[in-house]
Amino acid sequence: MSANRVRVVVTGLGATTPVGGDVTSTWAALLAGQSGVETLTADWIDTVPVRFAGTAAVDPAEVLPRPEARRLDRSEQFALVAAREAWQDAGAPQVAPERLGVVVSSGIGGITTTLNAYDTYRERGWNRLSPFTVPMLMPNGPAAWIGLDLGAQAGVHATVSACASGAEAIGSAMDMIRAGRADVVVAGGTEAAIHGLNIAAFAAARAMSTRNDDPAGASRPWDRDRDGFVLGEGAGIVVLESEEHARARGARVYAYCAGVGYSADAHHITQPEPEGRGIIMAMTQALNNAGVSGQDIKHVNAHATSTPAGDVGEAQAIAKAIGTHPLVTSTKSMTGHLLGGAGGIESVFTIKALQDRIVPATINLHDLDDGIEVDLVHGENRKLPEGDIAAVNNSFGFGGHNVSVVFKGA
Amino acid sequence: MAANEQDILAGLGKIINEITGIPASEVTPEKSFVDDLDIDSLSMVEIAVAAQDEFGVEIPDDQLKNLKTVKDVLNFIQG
């Protein structure tokens, strides 16, 4: 690691999730082991084999002014709510517009808008479509609206890599600051995909839990009885800043955004590579990029989505790339899987774990599957040690995309 | 103002409030959409679509651009 490289810090956090409408309520719910997964009541519910999801705890359309909300896809609503929280949390930094950037992603984009607009077009004609249909459905919409809201001119980007999208956005934002393209970048992920078609499509891929009689127990990473992921929705956003810029304005620093590793499996479009080579490469590169060793990593917020194929492979890859010592958890056991939003909220959780030196327990993990040597946090929350600590957030996506982000305690 | 026109004005005020957040009480006949109410062209399209649903009157694009004031819309809807 170059000694004079720009260091990047986290100065603001925002989140709206299935367990809380902001960071404070979400983090308290995670530490209390609360599930945000509930039975759905939508009119299409009898047409799909999965009848539950992690619906957002707070409807973003109730938080935003009505004229604003009606021009936004739900994924954009989540992103704006979380970005505004993060921006205020960072103290609304004074930064020149040409030094302020945005990297915010979604895995799927405004798909509910697309589907509803298709119905309107077919049933009532083209001229009944909202003139905002295109900006509501485009996958760069969340980033663009945040950029407009903050007046960001240094570049507004949307990195799309399915369920790795949010983490890739944060990695890209860090790279943007390191490259000298911006002093402050708002970054993260958002998703609003709880719709019959999406559930049908994921169910067709046999990727989802069908534990309809026990929604809160359905997301059970590493448990022998896990049967697939649980869909969640919401957004997680961080404000990243060059350390120099943050120190100059006396900002509170949560953590260092210290390194990122990217890789691709080049193996299968949806199945994880059995030896975990791609995810080992992403974690190893992230550690090297951050200039830390495996021993420095005390906590991993795992991707672990509660699928039979993925969870154990990731645990084994963590043991190989980092070691068996970190406290590993999957907060998806409580929030469900936010797809492109996952890397956003889970980076927020990783940073909160470093700040409070506590790792929330994975819930629903009662019968540990075979072949796992890492220290999985379950049953009760566990404390992180005093002194210098670092942590990894993993996010992997359909397509074989792997992203690992390293955060270091402030 | 005829009773019918009052009803249309009230309906239009409700639509404009829903779309732009402008209080319905500020939507009065003499107001210009651009100069007084600060309503842009895409919002006018939204208002026209909603007005079609509310009043059952189609407003073609070439007519829409001639509707400069609230009074113009009232007159158009009343035919």
From TrEMBL, chain A:
The keyword Lipid metabolism applies. Pathway: Lipid metabolism; fatty acid biosynthesis. Its EC number is 2.3.1.179. One of its GO terms (molecular function) is 3-oxoacyl-[acyl-carrier-protein] synthase activity. The active site is at 163 (for beta-ketoacyl synthase activity). It holds the Pfam family ketoacyl-synt. Residues 5-409 form the Ketosynthase family 3 (KS3) domain. Keywords: Acyltransferase, Fatty acid biosynthesis, Fatty acid metabolism, Lipid biosynthesis, Lipid metabolism, Transferase. One of its GO terms (cellular component) is cytosol. Involved in the type II fatty acid elongation cycle. Catalyzes the elongation of a wide range of acyl-ACP by the addition of two carbons from malonyl-ACP to an acyl acceptor. Can efficiently catalyze the conversion of palmitoleoyl-ACP (cis-hexadec-9-enoyl-ACP) to cis-vaccenoyl-ACP (cis-octadec-11-enoyl-ACP), an essential step in the thermal regulation of fatty acid composition. This is 3-oxoacyl-[acyl-carrier-protein] synthase 2. It comes from Nonomuraea wenchangensis. The lineage of its organism: Bacteria, Bacillati, Actinomycetota, Actinomycetes, Streptosporangiales.
TrEMBL record, chain B:
4'-phosphopantetheine is transferred from CoA to a specific serine of apo-ACP by AcpS. This modification is essential for activity because fatty acids are bound in thioester linkage to the sulfhydryl of the prosthetic group. The modification O-(pantetheine 4'-phosphoryl)serine is found at residue 41. Belongs to the acyl carrier protein (ACP) family. SUPFAM superfamilies: ACP-like. GO terms for cellular component: cytosol; membrane. One of its GO terms (biological process) is lipid A biosynthetic process. This is Acyl carrier protein. Carrier of the growing fatty acid chain in fatty acid biosynthesis. It comes from the Bacteria. Keywords: Cytoplasm, Fatty acid biosynthesis, Fatty acid metabolism, Lipid biosynthesis, Lipid metabolism, Phosphopantetheine, Phosphoprotein. PANTHER family: ACYL CARRIER PROTEIN (PTHR20863), CARRIER DOMAIN-CONTAINING PROTEIN (PTHR20863:SF76). It is found in: Cytoplasm. InterPro entries: ACP, ACP-like_sf, PP-bd_ACP. Residues 6-79 form the Carrier domain. Pathway: Lipid metabolism; fatty acid biosynthesis. One of its GO terms (molecular function) is acyl carrier activity.
